[in-house]
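can u pls check wat happens w/ zinc ion
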Amino acid sequence: MPQFDMIVIDPERAKDVNIEQHTAGTPLREGGGDETYRCGCCKTKLLVSVAHHDAHGVVIKCGKCGKVNTEPHHH
Ligand SMILES: [Zn+2]
């Protein structure tokens, strides 16, 4: 069960991509794999037990702290 902290980015950098809005208290997506992704700022779980391809390239605005996160594998 690998767990990753996502990378917090400047929202200006994400203005050309689709930012998915996470709601505090509920993972944005859950199930389908074994990778869990947490907000890089407040450690809220944004994606829980998802497949790698479900996290690939996603940009998520954390519903708890409001930071914009991207998945860490490209960095
Ligand atoms: Zn957060």
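The mean pLDDT is 94.
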